Amino acid sequence: MPLPAALNDADLEFKCLECDRAFVRKGSWFKVISTFRCEGCGAANRIGYTDKLALFEKHSALLLIMEPTANGGPTVHRWGDVG
Ligand SMILES: [Zn+2]
User: Fold this and answer.
1) CB–CB of 36/59 below 8 Å?
2) What pLDDT digit, counting tens, does each position of 18-37 carry?
3) Residue 58, domain extent
4) Which entry of 11, 33, 41, 51 is 20 to 30 Å from 3 by CA?
5) What total number of domains does the chain contain?
6) Ligand 1 centroid from CA 75, angstroms
7) CA 5 / ligand 1 centre spacing (Å)
8) How many whole angstroms from 43 Cα to the centroid of ligand 1?
9) What is the pTM of this model?
């Protein structure tokens, strides 16, 4: 599953694994890096593909909540209503 291009310009938040300090970077930045050094405690955080995927999915869900009527219809379908 590719990381969504729609989030290239979105501000994504990642927290240092050591000191829990939050950082905000663009989605395009997260796509190209694999590690980053915390500006707070200096710890080297490794951000693997699964970490990126979780980060992007979290923010994708937020985007869907903020733009529920982009196509003029409901985005949530309840299977129980069919029939
Ligand atoms: Zn830190």
Assistant:
1) no
2) 999 999 999 999 999 999 99
3) 5-64
4) 41
5) 1
6) 38
7) 28
8) 5
9) 0.69
Least confident of 17-21, 36-40, 75-79: 75-79
Instruction: Label residue 35 exposed, middle or buried (CB < 10 Å: 0-12, 13-18, 19+).
Output: exposed
Does residue 20 lie within any of the structural domains?
yes
Q: How far is the CA of 65 from the centre of ligand 1 (A)?
A: 30
Residue 53 in any domain: the answer is yes
Find the 10 Cα to ligand 1 centroid distance in Å: 22
Q: Is residue 73 part of a domain?
A: no
Please give the distance, rounded to the nearest whole angstrom, from the Cα atom of residue 51 to the centre of ligand 1: 17
The secondary element (H helix, E strand) that includes residue 51 is helix 49-66
What is the distance in A from the centroid of ligand 1 to the CA of 2? 28
Q: How far is the CA of 62 from the centre of ligand 1 (A)?
A: 25
Predicted local confidence at residue 77, as pLDDT:
46
Average pLDDT for 33-62: 92
Cα–Cα dist 32/36, whole Å: 11
